[in-house]
Amino acid sequence: MMEKKRIDALQASRKSLISIYILCRVLIEIVKQSPDDVDENMNSKLEEIVFTQLKITDPMSISTSIIKSSNWNSFAKILGSMSESKFLSVSDRFIAELEKFPKTISQEMEPHAHLLILGMRYLKLKHYPLENFEQSADFMKSISKFFARTENVSIRLAYADVTTQLLLSLAGVVTVEINHPTWIDAMETLYKCTKKLIQNTKCWSVGFTLGVSILCVSPPQLFTERWMKLLESNNDKIKTNDISERGIYAIGLSRLVWVYLYRSSETLNNTIRTLTTLLQLYLNPKKKENWLTTDFSLINPLSDSLVSIGFLYPEFLMETAMLPLIKQSFNGANLDINNYDKLLLAIATYRRFLITDKKPSFPEATSRAYLTDLNRITTTINDPLYSSYEEICLYIYKLFILLDSNIGSEVWSPENMHQK
């Protein structure tokens, strides 16, 4: 009898959780499609109910139940969708709760604070119109103060993760509005917070990624002063055996290079000088110092950087990066390839470069998605890069001929079609 009651209670609980999940998915779509003039009172009540549910969720329960974790994430997504039109109202609820936490949060309350901070990850920062940007700037200034004063490592990491996600959503679209004094103050405070994280070996990846994100939405002057220093002071990570850390460095590099190329106002000579210095990371001929691998978690972001450069300076890319990468790895005569990683990077980048016919997007994700239809590629003999294209294609042609003759299948060769 007791066992039957337990099973009935368990089934009822599961039904309730699944019903909540379905309701949340419906609410997300309703909020997204609701007109701006929706009933203010109804909107406020829904906002309060959802925020309360997010706030009172037991951290232990979502760590042991996938459906409870999904429901909590759905609450956060609803608030994120509502912040699209009611940013001030939604963000103020988070600020009001976060203000209550002291500098050092007790072990008992730490999971609750951590969860509340992560609940902000879907908020929609706006860069226009100015009034909306000022709301975003005020919000980030408050977050920067909370971040700076907290002494709990796990809380710092939570603030870093959420701040990174919020800032990256703006990095590809912001313009002159980032010169706003409130925004500058917030970014300055946040950037100071990254130093503590970067110095902690266990927190380096989070701190470095946050530092990159902050610089990507900083005014040109601050960006120019700091971006190369950030890369140079952390380039020891490219020598580590940890591929994930190399990948994080490469992703940061691709984001910073994009902002440098498409938002800063350096002279052409300075730009070429800086890019030449950066390319030494790719072209170091010393085998012991070569940090490239054939892992695409590293190849993809490095390729993104080269495509960003090539879109503005195609001749520079061909002469300074593409051809040297190929020549350092493949002699065109045999398969005694010295650096498979450089050859793979060169071929991947060449295809992506050729198929990129408009300004590359900011790499908000770990790497860009590229079109795969090679029929879109068109070149003519009058193209100023035609000789470079021809030379690269000749190398690739020789590589494929050698591969086919050494490891190709006779059954599938054009001259010997397999007969059933």
Q: Can you lay out the helices and strands and say which pair or pack?
A:
Layout: H1 2-33, H2 40-56, H3 59-64, H4 66-98, H5 110-118, H6 130-149, H7 153-171, H8 181-199, H9 204-216, H10 220-233, H11 243-263, H12 268-283, H13 296-312, H14 314-329, H15 340-355, H16 386-407
Helix pairs in contact: 1-4, 2-4, 4-5, 4-6, 5-7, 6-7, 6-8, 7-9, 8-9, 9-10, 9-11, 10-11, 11-13, 12-14, 13-14, 13-15, 14-15, 14-16
Structure description:
Helix 10 (220-233) packs antiparallel against helix 11, helix 11 packs parallel to helix 13 and helix 12 packs parallel to helix 14. The protein has helices spanning 2-33, 40-56, 59-64, 66-98, 110-118, 130-149, 153-171, 181-199, 204-216, 220-233, 243-263, 268-283, 296-312, 314-329, 340-355, 386-407. It is globular and about 75 Å long. The mean pLDDT is 89. It is 69% helix and 0% strand. It is mainly α and 420 residues long.
